[in-house]
Amino acid sequence: MAESNLAARGDALEGQASGARVIAQALKAQDVNYMFGVVGIPVTEIALAAQEAGIRYVGMRNEQAVDICAEELGNNVRPAVTLLGDINAVTKQLLEQFDKTPWQYPPESEWWKVLREKMKSNDALSKELASKKSLPMNYYTVFYHVQEQLPRDCIVVSEGANTMDIGRTVLQNYLPRHRLDAGTFGTMGVGLGFAIAAAIVAKDRNPGQRVICVEGDSAFGFSGMEVETICRYNLPIVLLVVNNNGIYQGFDTDSWKEMLKFGDATTVAPPMCLLPHSHYEHVMTAFGGKGYFVQTPEELQKSLRQSLADTTNPSLINIMIEPQATRKAQDFHWLTRSSL
Q1: Who wins on pLDDT, 79 or 331?
Q2: Which of 195, 295, 176 lies closest to 235 in space, CA to CA?
Q3: Helices 19-29 and 43-52, packing angle to 10 deg
Q4: I want to staple 21 with a disulfide (CB 3.0 to 4.6 A). Which of 49, 59, 120, 271 is the partner?
Q5: Are 211 and 202 contacting, i.e. CB atoms less than 8 angstroms apart?
Q6: Coil, strand, or helix at residue 174?
Q7: Over 50: is that where the pLDDT of 317 sits?
Q8: Are 284 and 223 within 8 A, CB to CB?
């Protein structure tokens, strides 16, 4: 083919809108301002087109999927009523009905009385656990000291087993849409992605607002390399890794070494145990952020204070706790078992 024909063909193709450009323009027309994705074919072309259209693109390291299906209704506890549908549409319908026939559960009812008594006893028990001075720390001691310093307008992201469950009861939110976590089924790996998305929006709309991402050590392992993404975009995220050397429970260093005397780790180590005393803070420092390794309440308070004061760098605080630490006893067995 002659060079003139090749040039003419190139000019013609250049004048055509590519599929990626059509997608980007359609998203922009729907007021989409941010895009998150794992770069690769064909995402790279779409990402470039999105940036060209004025959409801010954040390249992630880990891919996640979300699934909604009717079969999940009642999988945990059998409900009296189930609602299946788009949450925006269903919520709108409920609010419209409430406007027509306002209703409130009677505050003097027996149910409210029992609930208030239970709230009071739970609060007392949590405070008792938080006040313990023994080392290593337990979950409640850690969260008590974290809660003391959390900015009122911060966004709390949380995932893990005990880390997320206990954190829900201790770490407070005062504003709507300021908490993101792994949900009812504890889907692991979503925490850092949530934190990155929240921080991108916070950085644009509310400069100075902090995102506090609270991770169990196991949960952190699912998408820990997103720390590079956090540092690449220099996002206002403080990562707290609550490290008990395992999934639910682990071993301390001495117990781990003693166990290995009886055989290879593949044959003697319980599956829920992780390598004790892992220095996850080095993952953050490897990419230019600030890392802290803490073992006492005083070290935790100091490192968190420094992290919140530093608005120029993301940080990760690796918090060592008692490997056998657990949550308070649960009244309902379905809170700690799966019905799958």
Answers
A1: 79
A2: 195
A3: 50
A4: 49
A5: yes
A6: coil
A7: yes
A8: no
pTM equals 0.77
Closest to 98 measured CA to CA, from 109, 90, 110 = 90
**Which letter, b or e, does each residue of 263-274 get, where b requires 16 or more Cβ atoms within 10 Å of its Cβ?**
eeeeeebeeebb
Residue tagged 């009861």 (tokens)? 169
> Is the per-residue pLDDT at 153 higher than 70?
yes
Q: What is the largest CA-CA distance in the chain?
A: 89
Q: Are 82 and 73 in contact (CB under 8 A)?
A: yes
Closest CA to 162 of 276, 246, 273: 246
The tally of CA atoms less than 13 A away on the side-chain side of residue 65 is: 2
Q: Are 18 and 49 in contact (CB under 8 A)?
A: yes
Report the amino acid identity of residue 190: V
pLDDT at 330: 58
Q: Which residues contact 175 (CB under 8 A, 6 or more apart)?
A: 152, 153
> What's the CA gap between 200 and 273, in Å, rounded?
34
Q: What is the mean pLDDT of residues 109-115?
A: 87
Burial class (CB within 10 angstroms; exposed 0-12, middle 13-18, buried 19+) of 45: middle
Contact 219, 247 (CB under 8 A): no
Could you write out the DSSP letters of every residue in 241-307? Answer: EEE-SEESEE--HHHHHHHHTTS-HHHHS-TTB--TT--THHHHHHTT-EEEEE-SHHHHHHHHHHH
Instruction: State the DSSP code for 53.
Output: T
E strands, the chain, are 34-38, 56-60, 155-159, 179-181, 211-216, 237-243, 246-247, 249-250, 290-294, 315-320
Three-class secondary structure of residue 133 per DSSP: coil
Angle of helix 110-130 relative to helix 139-149, nearest 10 degrees, comes to: 100
Among 97, 108, 69, 99, which Cα is nearest to 85's? 69
Q: Which tens digits make up the pLDDT trace of 219-254?
A: 999 999 999 999 999 999 999 999 999 988 899 999
